[in-house]
Design the sequence.
């Protein structure tokens, strides 16, 4: 790579000076994560495990928000990448006996490979909008079918159990994440790192390019941007994050089932992002927390009631705040903190 | 006059039975200003779409600096220096004026370029005071035209293609635009325009298109006297 090309590449990630709203973002997010860090002081064991699941799932929500919220590509089968990450992690640690770190990297690489392959043919063929959503939905369905068809490897309907906890070597010592407290901090740090990284990337010049492509792809092309390459990169990065979330989820639960790759989880993650406010990063994390908490509360009353409540809640959000709760907060407070532009219309 | 920079040979493009561009040969020199005029539907914008890779000609060849261009990806036209302003202002409406210019700079691989380039263009297009806070969507039509021209200029193009740049501009703005175009050095420019007063001010080489064909190619002062051109504009041909 020549010096010029390297300089131009680095320029994509150059940061703009911090604005007032950036500082507000950092203060609010810093406060929120600090609160979550001290949560174990009063949270019981069950609440801690719920919070851990929410934090891991919020990485999954962030992965979809990065794609859908920033580029407009709606992956209707995003659970495929979550599931691939989960199953590769499970199979490599349980059956191949690989170390956690190697398996984690392989899980993310597997999700990335599938995204790269499918994304290449879709994105370079000009597949966008609802057509992209429909084709990616097929990914989740095909993925689930493959899992069921190769039951001798994947465990079929029952999935796999006894998946080892994450184990990392650090400074010569080996540390296993096998108790509520360590798992809580693993999930918390992972979510914080993913959120901060995405925020930094998006507030830099690369974020502007993605925003430009979302806003007017033809114009971006006519200015020399290889928009298909940018979209493919975003799709792959999104799949890597979904794979990371899947792998972490499997390691903390100790079990993996075909539901993790199916259309129900694929729909749920869309609801989290839409409810929270797509394109806002924090909104989908909040949406994830709210919907998961709601599911737990409703399911404790009746296991059959949840899909109905979820449907009504979602319709209500679309009617009251089409851009999700983030827009509602903004319209109530007049703040541009959660600004995501006109793309707040959830289905366009 | 310097060497031919952009060249079209035997270009053909039809939509259904309509021949939008029919056997067009056109050469543009390295520092030339060329106006294309003609009634609606004459094939002017289609010709620009062919020059920028938005359309692929059904026959014929386009070369830029001696390099064949047909079949290359759209973004490569811009990276090689062919930059276009669309007929309907095409800006990133949900981004600030400054961000629009920054994205334009990054597109041609000049992301590492100095911030001075953005300030310079902001000054030129007269939008400096509102560059950070105003979204492109909030601009008036004429200001959007200026922004898009600014986005094209910041890319330091070798060929600048302007599709009806004076549309929606005030008389004063149109005069300023004409002055700016006449001042541009080391740059080939193609301007499509219906505003004859504007074209008269430029008084450059002018091509008249009608039914997809080039029927006249001369200085505007000569074209203006041509009765055939008058007939075409008045619908008598």
Sequence:
């Amino acid at each position: 790579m020549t010096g010029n090309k390297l300089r131009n590449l680095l320029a994509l990630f150059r940061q703009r000076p911090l604005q007032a709203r950036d500082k507000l973002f950092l203060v609010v997010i810093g406060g929120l994560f600090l609160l979550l860090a001290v949560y174990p002081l009063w949270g019981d064991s069950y609440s801690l495990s719920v919070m851990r699941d929410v934090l891991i799932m919020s990485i999954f929500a962030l992965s979809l928000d990065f794609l859908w919220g920033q580029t407009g590509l709606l992956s209707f089968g995003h659970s495929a990448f979550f599931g691939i990450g989960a199953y590769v992690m499970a199979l490599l640690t349980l059956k191949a006996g690989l170390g956690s770190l190697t398996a984690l990297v392989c899980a993310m690489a597997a999700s990335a490979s599938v995204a790269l392959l499918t994304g290449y043919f879709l994105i370079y063929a000009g597949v966008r909008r609802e057509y992209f959503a429909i084709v990616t939905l097929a990914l989740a369905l095909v993925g689930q079918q493959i899992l069921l068809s190769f039951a001798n490897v994947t465990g079929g309907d029952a999935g796999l159990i006894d998946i080892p906890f994450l184990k990392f070597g650090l400074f010569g010592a080996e540390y296993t994440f096998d108790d509520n407290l360590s798992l809580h901090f693993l999930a918390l740090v992972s979510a914080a790192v993913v959120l901060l990284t995405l925020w930094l990337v998006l507030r830099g010049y690369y974020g502007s390019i993605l925003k430009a492509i979302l806003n007017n792809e033809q114009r971006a092309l006519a200015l020399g941007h290889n928009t298909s390459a940018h979209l493919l990169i975003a799709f792959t990065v999104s799949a890597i994050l979904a794979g990371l979330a899947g792998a972490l989820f499997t390691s903390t639960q100790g079990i993996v089932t075909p539901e993790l790759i199916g259309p129900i989880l694929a729909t749920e993650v869309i609801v989290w992002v839409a409810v929270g406010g797509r394109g806002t990063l924090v909104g989908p994390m909040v949406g994830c927390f709210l919907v998961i908490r709601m599911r737990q509360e409703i399911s404790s009353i009746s296991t059959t009631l949840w899909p109905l409540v979820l449907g009504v809640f979602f319709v209500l959000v679309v009617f009251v705040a089409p851009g999700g709760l983030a827009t509602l907060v903004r319209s109530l407070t007049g703040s541009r903190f959660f600004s995501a532009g006109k793309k707040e219309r959830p289905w366009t | 006059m310097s060497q031919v920079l952009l060249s079209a040979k035997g270009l053909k493009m039809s939509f259904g039975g309509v021949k939008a561009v029919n056997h067009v040969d056109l050469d543009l020199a390295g520092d030339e200003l060329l106006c294309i005029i003609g009634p609606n539907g004459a094939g002017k914008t289609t010709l620009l779409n062919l020059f920028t890779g938005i359309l692929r000609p059904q026959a014929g060849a386009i070369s830029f600096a001696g390099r064949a261009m047909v079949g290359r990806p759209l973004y490569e036209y811009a990276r090689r220096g062919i930059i276009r302003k669309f007929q309907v202002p095409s800006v990133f409406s949900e981004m600030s004026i400054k961000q629009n210019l920054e994205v334009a700079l990054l597109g041609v691989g000049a992301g590492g370029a100095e911030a001075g380039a953005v300030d310079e263009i902001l000054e030129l297009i007269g939008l400096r005071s509102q560059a950070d806070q105003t979204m492109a969507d909030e601009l008036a039509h004429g200001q959007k035209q200026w922004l898009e021209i600014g986005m094209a200029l910041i890319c330091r193009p070798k060929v600048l293609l302007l599709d009806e740049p004076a549309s929606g501009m005030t008389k004063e703005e149109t005069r300023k635009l004409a002055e700016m175009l006449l001042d541009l050095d080391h740059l080939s420019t193609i301007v499509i325009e219906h505003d004859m007063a504007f074209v008269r001010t430029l008084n450059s080489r002018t091509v008249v298109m009608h039914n997809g064909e080039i029927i006249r190619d001369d200085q505007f002062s000569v074209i203006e006297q041509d009765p055939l051109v008058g007939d075409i504009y008045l619908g008598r041909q």
Notes: Chain B touches chain A at residues 52, 54, 73-79, 83-84, 86, 90-95, 99, 102-104, 106-112, 151, 155 (CB under 8 Å).
